[in-house]
Amino acid sequence: MTLASVVRRIPHMPEPVTVKQLAEKTQAKLTGDESMIVTDVSHDSRRVGQGTLFAAVSGALFDAHKFVPQVMEQGAVGVLSEREVPEGFNGAWLQVADVRCAMALAASEVQHHPSRELQLVGITGTNGKTTTAYLIASIPEEAGELVAMTGTVEYRLGKERFKADRTTPEATDMQRLLRRAVEIGCRTAVMEASSQAMDFHRCDELEYAVAVFTNLTRDHLDYHKTMENYWYAKQRLFDGRLGTRPRNSIINIDDPYGVELAAALEKEGLRVIRYAVNGHADVTARDPQFSLNGMRFRLTTPAGEREFNSPLVGPPHIYNTLAAVASGLALGYDLDIIAAALEKCTGAPGRFERVAHDGDFSVVVDYAHSDDALLNVLRTARQVVKGKIITVFGCGGDRDRSKRAPMGEAAGSLSDVVILTSDNPRTEDPEQILCDAEEGIQKTGKPYRKIADRTEAIHEAIAEARGGDLVLIAGKGHEDYQIIGRETFHFDDKEVARAALAHKR
Asked: For residue 83, which phi and psi values (nearest 5 degrees)?
């Protein structure tokens, strides 16, 4: 099932919105009939129908203006654009300063601001967003409620599940999805808010009951260029640039950026709930113990203390769990409900996910695709593994080259053996990507091999494993594809690992 299929089932809302109202809302220069009723806003020409206002977004790879004649024939009432109205255009033309910003404003208005009828939770940070989203969503589900969720792995609408095409949907899709969530009876919605999404105004005009900050480490610098820009983008969720401020901010103060953010928000009189493992905070974990079967610790909250057990493995998941506990409390759930939910939740697919088999060694698949995330996974492995750690990883092509050598160094620093392979090479030479990462591994002096074919690399790692060892297959996690050149092929690390395990017997 796709987001589009759900979107098409969403009925038009009552209390119609006119072109004039949207022009006023977006501060547009309006040409054409101002009285026409707008029933939907879409950036996708394929989903334009009667009453739709088409947002003509011009990107690096395409210009949506070429679809204007087509969408008008499909029944669109007009176009939202940064350009002047073309000569001879027959319809409403709304010229705006920023089409993405205006698109979010218009979509929110047409869908009658569904986030105001929900308890919306937004999660941002470099690591932990996806797992934290799953954990938070499990709390209202434990209370017997329907939940909506958007994120890297999948989107949810109550009992419906459909594959995510991006971490944070476009503003038009997000507003429709939230309206649908209201209509089916959801009280809570949980979303990952990526830095690029916030830069592209996908999160504008959403009112957050809770905003969560997990941490900030180097990532996405191919887009943001500097850590300062990256940090500035993340702060959008909290500082009002999205249109509103969250009612509750849940902040990891073991992260230095979190300390800065919490202090700034409290200085402005906003409600902050701090969580930490090492520092003093509102929600904390004491005396943690880890194994390959999960973790346990003493949970301390403003609502009381209790011994806590989780099937999730490793220190990073303590932070994800604390963020979820703090969010659940902020949303008004009882600590018993929160604990019952989180002690059962296995988190997100592809996050330190074990591949079941009968052997005396372990195979784990994880989405770690930055040096910090890889270090976190390997630190976790070190705490629970008696034997060798054999790490298989690669770096994406056409993405931030500056993190390749640090990822290599991270892998080598805590692994016993590293097998360097391809991730999604895209249009780059796979061998060059391997060479970039190799520079970091060489600094550690650890043994390594370069095997560009990912299937072969996984088979070799599993063939080498002995009793007590752990094979970590990092980088792709839940993904079931590989991009080579401009083609996308089916590829699932877990499937390949199972085939390798069967061959090893």
From this structure: -95, 165
Q: How would you classify the pairing of strands 37-38 and 40-42?
A: unpaired
What token pair was written down for 101?
């910003």
Longest dimension (CA), the chain: 75
How large is the C-alpha radius of gyration of the chain?
Answer: 24
In this prediction, residue 225 carries a pLDDT of: 79
Phi and psi dihedrals of 251, rounded to 5?
A: -125, 130
Cβ partners under 8 Å of residue 87, min gap 6 = none
463: domain CATH number?
Answer: 3.90.190.20
CATH code where residue 18 lies: 3.40.1390.10
Checking DSSP bridges between strand 487-490 and strand 481-484, what pairing results, if any? antiparallel
For residue 70, tell me if it sits in a domain.
yes
- CA dist., res. 388 & res. 227, Å (int): 35
User: Residue 41: what residue type?
Assistant: V
- Nearest residue to 309 via CA among 301, 320, 299: 299
Q: Is residue 348 assigned to a domain?
A: no
Do the Cβ atoms of 367 and 219 come closer than 8 Å?
no
pTM of the model: 0.89
Alpha-carbon distance of 150 to 133, in angstroms, equals: 8
pLDDT tens track for 175-229: 999 999 999 999 999 999 999 999 999 999 999 999 999 999 866 667 667 989 9
Q: Same domain for 105 and 121?
A: no
Shared-domain flag, residues 405 and 498: yes
The total of other beta-carbon atoms located within 10 Å of residue 34's CB is 16
Question: Are 190 and 121 within 8 A, CB to CB?
Answer: yes
Q: Please name the residue that has the structure tokens 């629970």.
A: 384
Residue 2, in any domain of the structure:
no
Q: What is the pLDDT of residue 12?
A: 43
The strand pairing partners of 501, in sequence order, are none
> Per the structure block, which two tokens stand in for 436?
């970039």
Q: Cα angle vertex 222, ends 214, 410, to 5°? A: 60
**Whole-angstrom Cα distance, residue 211 to residue 265?**
12
Domain count, the chain: 3
Tell me the Ramachandran region of residue 165: left when phi exceeds 0, alpha when psi lies from -120 to 50, beta otherwise.
Answer: alpha
Quick one: pLDDT at residue 13? 46
Phi/psi for 388 (5° steps) reads -80, 155
Residue 4 has pLDDT above 70, yes or no: no
Enclosing domain of residue 22? 8-110
To the nearest whole number, what is the mean pLDDT of the chain?
Answer: 94
